[in-house]
Each structure stands twice: as structure tokens, then as C-alpha cells.
Amino acid sequence: MSKTRELKLVITPLEIEVEDCVATLLETSKLPLPWEQYQASIQVRCPYKNKDVLSRVFQLDFRNTEEFKQKLKTEVSKFKYVLFLYDEQTLRRMGLIQ
User: Fold this and answer.
1) pLDDT at position 59 over 60
2) Helices marked H in the chain — which ranges?
3) Stated pTM of the model
4) In terms of Cα–Cα distance, which of 32, 20, 25, 31 is closest to 10?
5) What single DSSP character describes residue 6?
6) 5 secondary structure, DSSP code
């Protein structure tokens, strides 16, 4: 008896609200490894001094949706913290925002 598998389709880009910011899932791919692991390309848009700023595109590796959610929350929190620490010119010079 064969095992049936559910097909999950995600149309990208997909926007997800995380911690008052919007994370855009640009692309997801399964990595060619012996275990199941995925990689997602993400870009975050957060409010910053009366306007929105965009992060650079970054990659997240994850094994399941719970790990993805946790890592995404962590990365968004780190981005918000950096926005708090530096001015816009410094953030652009460091390549953290577009």
C-alpha cells in the first residue's frame, strides 16, 4: 500500500506580517541534501521614521514550518533592532537597507 502525500503549493511572492513589519517570501527551494531541508529568500519592510524601509534580500534555511516561523521572527527582530541603533545613512552605507 503506497503512502499518499499532500501537495502544498505556495505562490510567491507571499507577504507575511511579522512583528509590525511585512516579510516577503520571494522564493523557496528544497535543498539537494539527504535530509529534508529548504531555503527561502526573504525581504523585510519595516516602518522607520515615518516611512518604510526595505532590508536586503537574505536567505533562511529551515526544515519545517515551525522552524521557519521561529527563524523569521528572529531575523525580523534583529532587523528592527538595527533600525533602532543606526541612522538611515549608516544603514545604507552598511548595505542593510535599500
Assistant:
1) yes
2) 65-85, 88-94
3) 0.81
4) 25
5) -
6) -
Beta carbons within 8 Å of 55's beta carbon, 6+ residues apart: 43, 44, 45, 46, 79, 96, 97, 98
How confident is residue 84, by pLDDT bands cut at 50, 70 and 90?
Answer: very high
Which amino acid does the sequence have at 31?
L
Peptide bond into 47 cis (omega under 30): no
Domain ranges of the chain: 14-80
CA angle 11, 16, 54 (to 5 degrees): 105
**How confident is the model over 23-49, as a mean pLDDT?**
90
Name the pairing type of β-strands 58-62 and 51-54.
Answer: unpaired
The residues, ordered by sequence, that sit 6+ positions from 30 with a Cβ below 8 Å of its Cβ are 36, 37, 38
